[in-house]
Write a structure and sequence with these properties.
112 residues; 9 strands; globular; single chain; 0% helix
C-alpha cells in the first residue's frame, strides 16, 4: 500500500555524477555511499590497460564487484559486463582492465 512506504534514510546517487579521483594511472574512484562500520559502495573506472598498483587483499571482510560496463580482470580472469564477483575475506586480486575500452565497476564492502 502506498501509505506504508517509508523512505526515511534512503539515499540515491547516480554513479555518472559522482566526483572521481585518480588513485593510480588510469584508475578513478568515486564514493557512492558510506554507512556504519566501514560499509560502503564505490565506483571505479579503469582506462584501457589500467591496473591497480598492488595486490588488493581483503582482510577485514568481503568485497563484491558488479561489472557495469566493459571487461574487468582480477589478475587471472576476465569478467564481462553484467558479471558479479564475490571476493571473500582473505582473498586477494589485482583489479585491472586488459581488454577493449576499459571498464566501470561497482564495488561494495557489505561488512565494512
Amino acid at each position: 500500500m502506498i501509505n506504508d512506504i517509508n523512505l526515511a534514510g534512503v539515499t540515491s546517487t547516480n554513479w555518472k555524477n559522482v566526483k572521481k579521483k585518480e588513485i593510480a594511472p588510469g584508475v578513478y574512484e568515486g564514493s557512492l555511499w558510506n554507512g556504519k562500520d566501514g560499509k560502503r559502495a564505490l565506483v571505479f573506472e579503469f582506462a584501457p590497460g589500467a591496473k591497480f598498483p598492488k595486490l588488493d587483499t581483503h582482510l577485514s571482510g568481503p568485497e563484491q564487484i558488479f561489472v557495469i560496463s566493459g571487461v574487468f580482470n582480477d589478475g587471472k580472469k576476465d569478467h564481462d559486463e553484467g558479471s558479479f564477483i564475490n571476493n571473500p575475506t582473505g582473498s586477494a586480486h589485482i583489479p585491472q582492465s586488459t581488454v577493449g575500452c576499459g571498464c566501470t565497476v561497482l564495488v561494495t564492502f557489505p561488512e565494512g
